Amino acid sequence: MEYNTRAGTESGAGYGAAGTWPAYWIAVVRVLTGWWFFHAGFTKLLEGGLTFDPSGYLQGMAGTVLAPVGTTLAGYPGIIGPMVVIFETLIGLALIVGLLTRFASFGGVMFMTMFWIGNAEYAHGVVNSDFMGLLLFTTIIVFGAGRYYGLDSIVERTGLVQGAPRLKYLLG
Amino acid sequence: MTDTLDKAVMGLSGGLMMLGVVGGGLVEFLAGPPYVPTTESGEVLTAAAVAPNVRAALVLAALLVLFVYAVYKLATPVRGQSQHSERATAGD
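YS: structure for the whole thing
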């Protein structure tokens, strides 16, 4: 049996089948993942503005494989704290509406990598909920989830993107 | 081709799921603090604008809709395929 692994789009990513179950479900996953991050960021914003202090968490990464990153970033709480609040919120919003989906999901991958390594909750194995969150973002990138019921499906049809197809690596 | 029933199930299950997760969350935002209706240990705060159990029930209902539809699809013949071709597809 032959399989068309490049079905749907020029980039070889995506089903090209809006309206079908896979397209529907990847959109659901995208929106709920976006809500997860938006909720995390926006509640921090409502409760404390941009004063979120991640230094305790980052210092707690000592002993993990990302300890040098954590301890270095912990020295700049005035920069990293607001960045966490703003980026969590923006990543969430981007995924909810499906705009710049891959770019935003890359940010999600960065966050979830830090959480997965930083939390180091390996009591039940390395495949834990943080790792599952990491997989969600990578899956959204691979499937170009913004193309399904998302604004990226419109943006990708514009002349700007048609003239610079590499932008699809940030959209989709 | 996605038919009307598929779209109805997508709409119902997706709507219930979004209502429970996003809709309930938006109500929590509008109702004011606390914005997270449970503590870190999972204790439900009485101040929650929408009971977490209600939100969970909506999501559960969405999953139930998908499950019932899956059972229906398993129980009905595949459209446009003979029994022979259905067996061939399943064996691929």
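YS: worth flagging: Chain B has three helices and no strands.
IM: good catch. Also Chain B has one domain: 4-76.
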